[in-house]
Design a protein that fits this description.
A five-stranded parallel sheet has the order 2-1-3-4-5, sandwiched between helices. It has helices spanning about 1-20, 35, 45-55, 75-85, 100-105, 115-130, 155-170, 180-190, 210-220, and strands at about 25-30, 60-70, 90-95, 135-140, 175. It is α/β, with parallel strands linked by helices. It has nine helices and five strands; from the N terminus they run αβααβαβααβαβαα. The radius of gyration is 21 Å and the shape is globular. α7 links the parallel β4 (about 135-140) and β5 (about 175). It has one domain: 3-Layer(aba) Sandwich (Rossmann fold), CATH 3.40.50.1110.
Amino acid sequence: MHMKKLLIAAAACCMMTAFTPFQKKQHIVFFGDSITEAGVKPTGFITKLGEMLKQKGIDNNYELMGAGIGGNKVYDLYLRMDDDILAKNPDIVVIWVGVNDVWHKRSFGTGTDADKFEKFYNAIIKKLQAKNIKVLICTPAAIGEKTDFSNELDGDLNKYSSIIRNIAKNNNCALIDLRKMTLDYNLAHNPDNKESGILTSDRVHLNETGNNAVADAMFKALVK
C-alpha cells in the first residue's frame, strides 16, 4: 500500500512537470545612440531596469544588453545591425534613435532627411521581424526641456516622433512614447521653463531622474 502511494505521487509529480511551461529567458537588446550607450552605466536606465526586474523577483527571466554608440543615426543602426544585433540572437530589440538625426542637422549639417529616416527605420524593423524578433520602438525624448515650445528643434523632434508613431502602427510594433512622456513630465515639473535639469543633464542626455523615468516606461512596455 505504501509503495502504491509512492507510485501515485511520482506519477502526479511527472504530470505536473509535463504541464509546467518552461520559462525561456528573454534576451533583450537596446539599440541606439549615446543615450542608450550610457544606459548600461551604474545609474543608466538599462541598469535601473535590471534592478526593477530584480525587485520584482523576475530578473532571471530576462537578459539585458546595451548596443548604443554615441552619435549614431538611423542609418548607422542599419549598417551595424548584423554584427551588433542579429549576431546576438535576441528575442526582443528596443530601438531608440532619432535625436541625432534631428540634432546633427543643426549642429553638424549631417542629420537625416525625414523620408530617408522613415525608409531606414522600416528596413531595420523588417530585417529584425524576418528573424522573428519582437521589436519595440521609442520616440526621441528631448533636445531642450523648455515647456513653452521655444526649444529650437521642437518642431522637427515632434515631426520625427510622429513618423515613428506611424512606423509603429504600420509594422505592428509596440511604441514607447518617450517624447510624450518627457513633454508631460516637464509640464508638471518644470514651472521655471528651464532648458535642462529636469529629466536631462544637458538638454538631451538623461540625468538620474530621467533614467528612472525611462526605466519605468521600459518596464511597463516589456513586462506584461
